[in-house]
Amino acid sequence: MRRGHVQSVTKPLLDVLAGERQAVPPIWLMRQAGRYLPEYRDLRQRTDNFLDLCFSPKLATEVTLQPIRRFGFDAAILFSDILVIPHALGQRVSFTQADGPRLDALGGADGLRKLRYELDHERLAPVYETIGRVKEQLPGNVTLLGFCGAPWTLATYMIAGAGTPDQLPAREFAYRHPDEFKILIDILIEASASYLIRQFEAGVDAVQIFDTWAGVVASDEFARCCIEPCARIAAAVRARIPAAKIIGFPRGAGSKLRRYIAAVPVDAVGLDWTIDLGFAREQLQTQKPIQGNLDPVALLVGGKALDRAVDRILESFAAGPFIFNLGHGVLPDTPIAHVEQLVARVRVST
User: Fold this and answer.
1) Where in 45-118 does DSSP place strands (E)?
2) Which of 44, 233, 235, 348 is packed most tightly, with the most Cβ within 10 A?
3) What is the model's pTM?
4) pLDDT value of position 1
């Protein structure tokens, strides 16, 4: 190497998002920074409120980096929460240890008057600071991921005031009040795009759009609720950040994933654990890089069951561009040793 020449460091996950197959697929896990880690639990005890942890750049940086230090994942995902967007739109958001997130429910159509129509970036300034801090400390080959919740998923929490098993309040609202529902979705599209743009400007390498509740949407409502909003977000982000890399994760979409990847300009699509591997390989991976899709329960159980599940996924997707991940987040009771087993199994997959 010539004196003075600095060799560039590649990021395997970004290479996959560019459509390149990797001999050993890059790996990261949804909720990789969380309650299954003892170091996270120790740190969480220092804060009274979960949002205080999200909005402390020093602590959020530490949490983001914890799984990278322990497991050497190929990506770090910003430690935050999808509900910071409703918070920055003026909706009261809180978290309880027992019941999870609680919001001042929008309820009926009149609830829209409670919201700002533009995102308050001052409220989110600590998130952008966290990104800068993480970027300074992250190994050069590790991708930094930002994220947001998709408009439909955010709307389900905002309308009901909490998570519900089948998202009935939001589904009912969408049918009963289509004009007001469109206003809410439009607000969330603009807010989400603005938030992701700021994340890129702060230093993230790529982002993921989490549509956690896409699976409850009726087939003939899927375009209105899920496809069109995410397509508009991606287009708005690319208008400002042309090279932006975006992963879409419409959990539970099933066969509707073909419509999603045809219409939403994402660079990769995340798969939940219910997706048939053959369908994903033949119908999806031929169109886009894919990410997924280990059942979090297999990781919880570990042992031979975990090895078999990992091997099936690796064998199914090895021929194309692929990022190894779970089909949803790490479960809180997952043993550390099982995550170590998973990483070792993936890393010797050549």
Assistant:
1) 75-77, 93-96, 100-103
2) 233
3) 0.95
4) 37
